[in-house]
Amino acid sequence: MGDAFHITTILALIGCLILGMLLAYLFYRRTPHLEPKLRIGLAVLRALTITIIGWLLFFPLVKKVSYTLQKPLIIIGQDNSLSVNHVSPPDFDRKAYETQLQALAKRLSSEYEVKVYNFSDSIKPGFDFKNQGKLSNATTFLNRLKDEYLNRNVGAVILASDGIFNSGGSPLYDIQQLKAPIYTVALGDTIPRRDVSVANVNYNNLVYLNNEFTIELQAEAFESKGARSRISVTEDGKEVYQGSLDINTSAFAKTISIPLKATKTGLRKYVVSLSPIGNEVSEQNNTRQFFIEVIDGRQKILIAAGAAHPDIATIRQSLAAHKNYELKVAVAEELNALDPKDFGLVILYQLPDVDNHAAAFLQKLGSVNTPVWYVIGAQSNTSRFNQLQSQVSFSGNNNTLQEAFAEVNADFTQFGLDAGAVKVINGFDPLQVPMGVLKVNGNGMIALSQRIGKIKTGAPQLFFMNENGRKSGYLMGEGIWRWKLSEAKDGITPSVVNNLLSQTVQYLVAKDDLRKFKVTPSKNTFNENEHVLINAVLYNDSYVAVNTPDVNIRLKNQDGKIFTFLFSRTSAAYQLDAGLLPAGNYTFNASTTLGDKKYQADGAFYINAMVLEYQQTIANHQLLSNMSQQTNGKMYMPRQLSAIADDLKANEQIKTLSFEDRKYEELINFKWLFAMVMFLLTLEWFFRKRNGEI
Predict the structure, then answer these.
(1) In 10 A of CB 522, how many CB atoms?
(2) Model confidence over 63-91: pLDDT tens digits?
(3) With a threshold of 0.70, does the pTM exceed it?
(4) I need a labelling partner for 611 at 20 to 30 A (CA). Which of 6, 90, 219, 348 fits?
């Protein structure tokens, strides 16, 4: 019970003993008929029983102190990535190194608690000398040690690596949190070997069809002065660029800009390669592949008007900067020769107008599903406008105009306007709006509302509708050219007007995906060490997501091998984790049946072969040395492994710790005290009954 007995405890025990003796005396003083020895014995039993019970009442808790010894924990982390086994010094004996590292762990386990891990793109317990890891991430490894062994007696970490950490960033920022010395074992070779490599490729993930774009090749070479390599770029196996690379220094680095053109839509696979120069230490780093999605985003947009107006020039100027918009402006009767179906969006600037221009074109427009953006102004024929569409009705006199300022609706989410743009728009000059009553027949999505002077009317100024998949936009008022002038006067860049008009058009031309069965990979390209995740959603006729029927999918790789899976259900959809798949091109076909209808969805994705471990062939022993110095550790070469155990033993900071555990426990939990009290009471009762006492 440790130091639980002190002066207070002893005095209380004496007091309980005196109380027990007093009560025993009072009880047995009037029993002269008992034999003296028996009388004294029974009194002693009574006094002892009362003393124990009284002591339990005074001191129901007792403090228990225990001590636990914790050996120092030595953690061995072995780099199991490809680069460790890729390049080694000429005198390095790999088998001997593996045997010595295992022997070191066994020797240390006799004095310390030893934990062994191998790490690369994952962290696993034990040794693994296969060196098949696609990445090397020391930061994740050290962070895991910090989380798992928090408040443990970590004596030291032994890290065997080449210092080439190509994922997770530099571990120098995380080693201090571990609060333990790091003893590093420097593997690999720091001497440059003859080698040429594609160090990196910079590119945009998304380009538009028929647009020219540029990729940047970062080439490196070592010990290759005077050599020449051929640069080649292929798109889906077809060469689209070739050039030469002249290496003029021993440590060579150069960035080359390569112009390309997107000629096909879809996810395109590009491969950049440098031809071998002979006697290279590695040819696997001569190639880098990447993927670019090419989309046909070009939309034909018609700006239709009854007559010329400065607003038309403003709209055209704002949209002309967008490479994927093909603009056409048509005025008055020349519109009748056009077909609305040829355009992705028709902007009706004050059409229908009071002069009844382009009546034939407007009649054709009413029978197609082309999105329309209506701009209402002084020349608009409001009665014919109400006949042309049914979502908005306007009653009023367009001969009388009023000034209405723009007020941004904070609840509008169809496209975004930052705080700076909101402030600029709210300060724009007012538009000229025909006086009247505007009625929206449905759920309008209001981007801008009208403010008359300082009064916020709540009436929409710029708003959108969506009826059965056909989008339409409405701008109540003319004079946006004044917004452009105001912007130029205040020197506002980039243009808020251009951004607002561009986002308006972009929203209107974007087509909603109305498919009832959709299957999409979580991304278009996966690395070969990533799990392939595919999502699916199924809608019923009311466009409510359901996941009652099973969904099957067949994956097919470029070699024709087929993988079959069944989707798992989520709360209202489906998801598939196909696990790790070999690198290559994959197509898929998913199918399901809802009621009597069968649905199918096709798609494709790529799994990228990882070559990061081959990109750098020179070991980074300086990084390993810095890690050791910053944590009061030491760096060793593989032949010095046996010295690590002696240095750990000589480190006075690595020692066994003793932890004191104090715990208070109720005396009532000690069953032997209860048994003692019952025994004493029973013994006293037995002798009293035997001698005729009640």
Answers:
(1) 15
(2) 777 777 888 999 999 999 988 888 888 88
(3) no
(4) 90
Structure-derived torsion over alpha carbons of residues 332, 338, 342, 344, reported in degrees to the nearest 10: 10
| Total count of residues recorded for the chain | 694
- Burial class from Cβ neighbours inside 10 Å (0-12, 13-18, 19+) for residue 386 reads middle
What's the pLDDT tens digit per position in 309-359?
999 999 999 998 777 788 999 999 899 999 999 999 999 999 999 988 999
Q: What are the tens digits of pLDDT across the range 258-267?
A: 999 999 988 8
DSSP string for residues in 283-323 = STTSEEEEEEEEE---EEEEEEESS--HHHHHHHHHHHT-T
Residue listed under structure tokens 């390049």 = 87
The CA distance from 425 to 110, in Å, is 75
For residue 460, give the H/E element and its range: strand 455-467
- 182-197, pLDDT tens digit by residue? 999 999 988 888 999 9
Q: How far apart are CA 568 and CA 553, in angstroms?
A: 11
The pLDDT score that the predictor gives to residue 169 is 81
How far is 217 from 219, CA to CA, in rounded Å? 6
Least confident of 46-60, 232-246, 470-484: 46-60
d(CA 150, CA 619): 31
**In b/e form, how buried is each residue of 423-436, taking b as 16+ CB within 10 angstroms?**
ebbeebebbebbeb
Three-state DSSP class for 425?
A: helix
Residues 54/13, Cβ–Cβ less than 8 Å: no
Instruction: Give the span between the Cα atoms of 13 and 62, in whole angstroms.
Output: 14
Collapsed DSSP state (helix, strand, coil) of residue 527? strand
Give 628-657 as a DSSP string.
Answer: HHHTT--EE-GGGTHHHHHHHHH-TTS--E
d(CA 446, CA 441): 13
* pLDDT tens digits, one per residue of 308-317: 999 999 999 9
DSSP 283-294: STTSEEEEEEEE
Rg (CA), the chain: 42
Dihedral sign, CA of 196, 202, 207, 212? Answer: negative
Q: Which residue spans within 105-211 are E strands per DSSP?
A: 113-119, 123-125, 154-161, 182-186, 195-202, 206-208
**C-alpha closest to that of 305 among 325, 326, 335:** 335
pLDDT at 217 over 70: yes
Two tokens, residue 373: 């953006």
Helices (H), 170-248: 175-178
The single-letter DSSP state of residue 150 is T
